[in-house]
Give the backbone structure.
Amino acid sequence: MEKTGYRRPTWDEYFMEVCDAISKRATCDRGRSGCVIAKDNRILVTGYVGAPAGLPHCDEVGHQLKKTLHEDGGVTEHCVRTVHAEQNAICQAAKRGIAIDGATLYCRMTPCRTCAMLIINCGVERVVCQRRYHDAGYSEAMLRAAGVGLEYVHDEVQKYG
């Protein structure tokens, strides 16, 4: 058989491509994140960033921005209208009765502090991120302290609006 130069994606590459596709459903243009939770090379659930069910989305009514003051004195703005992709995937698992203990979570950037706590308590064993979040230090430390594997596809900070 003649070789075509095609390289079959690894499982991590495959699930990250699915994560990219899921992120296209996101309804907040600040990050447009998606999430895939998989185990034993099977997708269990997915989620994307958006307002809670039945409430208006950022793409419809605009962002609901709040300022955050950091320990170093820096200030950043965050949209609080939305449920994060990781949170939505975890909620889907709970709603459908799907155990995610021992699974791998794929996401666009380092999970926030709240998402990291949920990931730890759900028993997710590994997190694979496309890129770093600009304020990821606390989440990274927490995930590692809890024994959750954390890997990055690209060792750079995610840029978004």
Observations:
- Strands lie at 34-39, 42-48, 65-69, 75-79, 104-109, 126-131, 149-152.
- The longest helix spans residues 11-23.
